[in-house]
Design brief:
This protein is mainly beta. It is built from 3 helices and 28 strands. The chain has a 7-stranded antiparallel beta sheet. It has a 6-stranded antiparallel beta sheet with strand order 6-25-24-27-22-21, with no helix packed on it. It has a 4-stranded antiparallel beta sheet with strand order 2-19-4-3, with no helix packed on it.
């Protein structure tokens, strides 16, 4: 999606932004003056408890035409087909390797982002602020006079088909496939699409995304902070008879009516704001001698648990890169993991699966369930010439990895019609090569 929007750059910065139509909209020297410039209302949006340590404290001050409290009571939003929720506990647990064919985008009718949300899997509980949920969005029309915000946690968007034009209280973002964006809890936003659109959502109930520590890598590498982009203030003063504010609360959708657009923030400052990132800017670290490094070297963003080094959720990508290891089986190794691994594919093909895993589809390898290259990949990689090779060209696979034990929802496993029940066949032709008389 071609973009002419302006952005502020950096990750976790203290930003200030004013719509140029109203210079001086931000108060000088204080946050909450008796009278704000231009007759605006001052409103704080807190993304952390007041008393969090300074290094984790997140909040922003918004200076808006009307305060957010100006709306009518919330009521349950009744949709003809509601497949969003935290009902994974109502589905039977399934330890098998699971794979889904590409999820269908609606071909008829008008289905916007809210109506197109479908929950795939999750773990934990939003009421105790501990857990995650994984969704897909399948839509074909823009949100009109409607916005949504999430009371349960933060959304990480991974567009797969079709770009998104997202209007937030902080400004506008254009997000295309091979880009991601994060919209934190409480921030209102509206999604505009140009046609059939599909993508993935990772929702975290606990904490916020941060950049992974680099350790011995040093000061630079992976996703560099300077490449993250935050929107600039851009207000609209628009009265509407019935503007709908949708709230995701404890896994359910509610709606309230108000008489104006919520995107009326003239200026803002703080460190709690949405952002986007282009995955093509990821600085890849890889092996240059032997063996296959753990996929943690491809982590873009992480949400850490209270245990050091253990993530509630990691967002990991498998970008184009050079493979040069000597005397090494180069594809991802066979693995049993204490983490849950959900994978999606933005475009192209995944290096460890030759067919079956398609853009717009997904797979789930649950905690301690074996997984790894299929038979075709193993045979080719075990006997091929180990020449320098650029892998994953024209491809972008990703993984949502979690220390929580994920469970698929009833819709994903039983009602979507997209489960590949023959997924296990890709490993069934793996042959025994053991020969006690041959070391090589």
């Amino acid at each position: 999606m071609a973009s002419e929007l302006s952005y502020l750059t950096g990750f976790g910065n203290e930003f200030t932004s004013e719509d140029p139509r109203c210079p001086g909209a931000l108060p000088v020297g204080q946050n909450n003056p008796q009278k704000c410039p231009y007759g605006l209302y001052a409103e704080q949006l807190s993304g952390s408890a007041f008393t969090c340590p300074r290094e984790t404290n997140q909040r922003s001050w918004l200076y808006r035409i009307r305060p957010s409290v100006l709306h009518k009571p919330f009521k349950r939003l009744l949709l003809s087909h509601n497949n969003l929720g935290h009902d994974w506990k109502d589905n039977e647990p399934n330890p098998n390797q699971m794979r889904w064919n590409p999820f269908d985008i609606p071909e008829s009718g008008n289905v916007d982002f809210v109506e197109g949300l479908h929950t795939i899997a999750g773990a934990g509980d939003a009421t105790t602020r501990n857990g995650i949920a994984i969704h897909v969005y399948l839509c074909n029309s823009s949100m009109v006079n409607r916005c949504i915000y999430n009371s349960d946690g933060d959304f990480l968007f991974v567009p797969q088909q079709g770009g998104l034009s997202i209007t937030t209280e902080f400004g506008k973002m254009d997000v295309s496939p091979n880009e991601i964006c994060v919209i934190q809890s409480g921030i209102k936003f509206s999604v505009e699409v140009a046609g059939p659109s599909r993508g993935y959502l990772l929702e975290i109930f606990d904490g916020h995304f941060t950049l992974p520590n680099l350790g011995p890598i040093g000061a630079n590498g992976l996703a560099n902070p300077r490449d993250f982009e935050t929107p600039v203030a851009c207000f609209e003063d628009r009265d509407e008879t019935d503007y709908a504010v949708v709230c995701k609360y404890q896994g359910q959708l509610f709606t309230a009516q108000q008489g104006h657009s919520p995107f009326d923030v003239v200026g803002w400052h703080g460190n709690y704001a949405p952002y986007k990132y282009n995955l093509a800017k990821f600085m890849v670290i890889n092996c240059v001698a032997y063996d296959h490094a753990d996929p943690s070297i491809f982590t873009v963003l992480t949400c850490q648990s209270s245990k050091p080094g253990v993530a509630i959720a990691d967002f990991v990508i498998f970008p184009p890169r050079w493979s040069v290891q000597e005397h090494t089986f180069r594809p991802p190794y066979y693995h049993r993991n204490c983490m849950s691994e959900f994978m999606g594919l933005v475009y192209g093909g995944y290096e460890a699966k030759h067919g079956g895993f398609m853009p717009g589809g997904a797979s789930l390898h649950s905690m301690m369930t074996p997984h790894g290259p299929d038979a075709v990949c193993f045979e080719k990689a075990s006997s091929g010439a180990l020449l320098p090779e650029k892998v994953a060209v024209g491809s972008m696979a990703f993984m949502f990895e979690s220390s929580l034990s994920l469970r698929a929802t009833r819709w994903a496993e039983r009602e979507s019609g997209k489960v590949d029940y023959d997924y296990h066949d890709c490993w069934q032709s793996l042959r025994k090569h053991f020969d006690p008389d041959a070391r090589q």
